[in-house]
Design a protein that fits this description.
Elements lengths: L1 H16 L15 E2 L4 E9 L3 E15 L4 E18 L4 E5 L1
Parallel strand pairs: 2-3, 3-4, 4-5
Antiparallel strand pairs: 1-2
Amino acid sequence: MKRISTLLTAFVFIFITGCTNDEIIPTEGNDVLTRAISQTIFSNQTVTSDKIVTGTDILSENVTVSNGAKLTLKASQNITINKPYTIEKGCQLEIIH
């Protein structure tokens, strides 16, 4: 239900403001979803090599970091991490704000 509300809010925001999505948030990797409301979604992932995710607001959930990898989340505004989230022994999670 929360996702539907978020998507509806985003649609209304885009419709009202006439947003053309000219400002793309830079991200590294093809498995990162960026929304027009400047929220980067990084979820349902297993990270096995070093990865950097950047954005204005990052929402990350259901992530496992394994195989000695380092996951870096770099956001200029907010970073939200929801469970489940697993950082295996020998791996790293770096949060840059």
